[in-house]
Amino acid sequence: MKKKSIASHPEKSANEWLAEIMQATYPTGRVDQVPEGWLTINQMAEITNTAVTTISHKMIRMVKAGKLQRKKFRIYSGRATAEVWHYYKAEEKA
Fold first, then answer.
1. Which residue range forms the structural domain that includes residue 67?
2. Does some domain include residue 24?
3. pLDDT tens figures, 47-73
């Protein structure tokens, strides 16, 4: 079997790569396709170099203020699938 390098498919997101790897290993779980721009709290904490608990509180406040949308997507988490909250910047009303 020919190996594929990650560099040959830069258009794939980290979730897509993980889903592909996990599907080959554990093919029984169902995962959702996470749309571009939706991030988990862990991803946002990594991007902003902020503690997960700190960014968690900030994001929840932003959801309550209507600045973020929140939705669960089923993704691979470790060796199993899990529903994980993802966040997206809310559309501004004109």
1. 32-94
2. no
3. 999 999 999 999 999 999 999 999 999
